[in-house]
């Protein structure tokens, strides 16, 4: 099974080079796309990894490639890297956002397959997962030309259906795409709610009941989840949790 968890030790630090950084609350410096971050070491490891947050690199802390980085390095380019083989740098960097989106879709499909309520949908979910994995295994040239948005449009309805089936027993409020920045919802009963694509920046969800709530694609920077019931929450990624304030954070 394809690894959907980032393994930096098997990657050529693609996320530290390929994307551009803009000086902001997420990054302490500006960095052009394709240029190595000034904190990147010769061994492809971050020299300030344990101090990223206090040094102003929150964006690095919350980023998740879903295992795309090591797949590109080890599989797509056969273990080569942009430093030892400079001529492949452009292709490696261009493939990263494509591979990441495919791996993200695979993560969602895998999560949907683990839901008991979606059993009738499992054949379709499994077929979509296998197809997405096969697409991710294509050549660099094919990946560069791939219309990921169009393909995502085919898979998303299946994931929406999975969410609806999982929430059928307790359908909560629909906040899909809602602007909920700073909204106070402490202690609210939000079981089965949909927050798909919602802006939850700085929202207060402390002690809220979020069982079977769908958080697909929600912006959760600074969302306060302390004390919230997250049992059975739907499509909440590790990256979203790192962006939020949780009981695991040191306050």
TrEMBL record:
Entries under InterPro entries matching the protein: 5peptide_repeat (IPR001646), Pentapeptide-BTB/POZ_domain (IPR051082)
Domain of life: Bacteria
TM spans (from-to): none
Matches recorded under Pfam families: Pentapeptide (PF00805)
Protein's name in the database: Pentapeptide repeat-containing protein
Species of origin: Actinoplanes lobatus
């Amino acid at each position: 099974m394809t690894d959907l968890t980032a393994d930096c030790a098997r990657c050529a630090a693609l996320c530290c080079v390929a994307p551009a950084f803009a000086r902001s609350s997420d990054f302490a410096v500006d960095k052009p796309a394709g240029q190595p971050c000034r904190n990147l070491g010769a061994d492809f490891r971050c020299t300030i990894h344990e101090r990223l947050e206090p040094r102003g690199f929150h964006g690095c802390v919350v980023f998740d490639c879903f295992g795309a980085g090591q797949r590109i390095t080890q599989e797509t380019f056969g273990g080569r890297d942009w430093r030892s083989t400079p001529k492949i740098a452009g292709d490696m960097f261009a493939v990263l956002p494509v591979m990441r989106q495919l791996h993200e879709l695979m993560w969602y499909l895998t999560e949907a397959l683990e839901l008991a309520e979606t059993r009738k949908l499992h054949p379709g979910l499994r077929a979509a997962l296998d197809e997405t994995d096969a697409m991710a295994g294509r050549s660099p040239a094919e990946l560069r030309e791939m219309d990921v948005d169009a393909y995502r449009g085919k898979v998303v309805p299946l994931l929406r259906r999975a969410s609806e089936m999982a929430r059928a027993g307790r359908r909560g409020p629909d906040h899909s795409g809602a602007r909920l920045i700073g909204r106070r919802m402490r202690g609210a009963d939000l079981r089965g709610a949909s927050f798909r694509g919602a802006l939850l920046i700085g929202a207060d969800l402390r002690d809220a009941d979020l069982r079977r709530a769908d958080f697909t694609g929600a912006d959760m920077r600074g969302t306060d989840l302390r004390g919230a019931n997250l049992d059975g929450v739907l499509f909440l990624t590790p990256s979203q949790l790192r962006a939020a304030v949780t009981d695991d954070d040191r306050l």
